[in-house]
Amino acid sequence: MLAVFFQEMIFRGTDAMAVLMEWAMARLVLHRDVQAKVHRELDEVVGRSSPAAESSLPALPYLQALIKEALRVHPPGPLLSWRHRAITDTYVDGHLVPAGTTAMVNQWAMSRDPEVWDAPLEFRPERFLAGGEAPDVSVLGADGRLVPFGSGRRSCPGKSLAMTTVTAWMATLLHEFEWAPAASSGVDLSEVLRLSCEMAAPLQVRVRPRRCST
Fold first, then answer.
1. Does 214 map to a domain?
2. d(Cα 19, Cα 162) in Å, to the nearest integer?
3. Which of 89, 101, 127, 169 could make an S-S bridge to 132, C-beta 3.0–4.6 Å?
4. How much is the pLDDT for 175?
5. Where in the sequence is the domain holding 195, given as residue range(s)?
6. CATH of the domain at 68
7. Residue 192 domain-assigned?
8. From its phi and psi, is residue 101 left (phi > 0), alpha (psi between -120 and 50) or beta?
9. Contact assessment for residue 176 and residue 210, using Cβ atoms and an 8 Å cutoff
10. 59 assigned to some structural domain
11. Is 197 a known ligand-binding residue?
């Protein structure tokens, strides 16, 4: 049990963040207009002459919306609550759930539900900004529409650290570089479920420095 605990803590704490960042970068490479908006926000808030700092993160709402949208469309953990199991036969909304059934939350399907999200297959960070459909949605478990870290007592204990870490890394990567598809390939958004829901084909990009290093 102790080995399983440490495996969960180490791998979930590193693998999921790396997977989320790869998905976010894939979307930025694919949607150059979104990348341009993040660059513009970083230039206005941080400035070309300064590196991105953690203290600047609260003033970067578009970057935060980008990460929320990446979590919505590409949740690293698409199935939540592996430990829940029905003890006895029970009915939920008229459907029989036999004893011994493992119950999981299909976050992948929830985030693509057209009854909840407008044009759910579109990648649109603006939905999380003022004037969008979900400007006040939190990804930390308080809103059932988007619960990539779970909710309640068994939600991910490292969710706040994960969001801060990913946002800081994305701010740095985007402030320092421009990202474009590799000349030999496009962006393949096919998925494969391993420890996390990963890109089936690793992302290949061309990178160009964009900030003067003075």
1. no
2. 12
3. 127
4. 97
5. 2-209
6. 1.10.630.10
7. yes
8. beta
9. yes
10. yes
11. no
How far, in Å, CA of 176 to CA of 142, rounded? Answer: 33
* 3-state SS record for the chain: CHHHHHHHHHHHHHHHHHHHHHHHHHHHHHCHHHHHHHHHHHHHHCCCCCCCCHHHHHHCHHHHHHHHHHHHHCCCCCEEEEEEECCCCEEECCEEECCCCEEEEEHHHHCCCCCCCCCCCCCCHHHHCCCCCCCCCCCCCCCCCCCCCCCHHHCCCCHHHHHHHHHHHHHHHHHHEEEEECCCCCCCCCEEECCCEEECCCCCEEEEECCCCC
Q: Tens-digit pLDDT profile for the chain (214 aa)?
A: 566 555 555 555 667 889 999 999 999 999 999 999 999 999 999 999 999 999 999 999 999 999 999 999 999 888 876 567 889 999 989 999 999 998 888 889 999 999 999 999 999 999 999 999 999 998 887 788 888 888 777 777 778 888 999 999 999 999 999 999 987 778 999 999 887 889 999 999 999 999 765 4
- What is the number of domains present in the chain? 1
Whether 79 maps to a domain, the answer reads: yes
Tell me the C-alpha to C-alpha distance, in Å, between residue 92 and each of 25, 84, 100, 113.
Answer: 39, 15, 15, 20
Kindly report the three-state secondary structure assignment for every residue of 138-190: CCCCCCCCCCCCCCHHHCCCCHHHHHHHHHHHHHHHHHHEEEEECCCCCCCCC
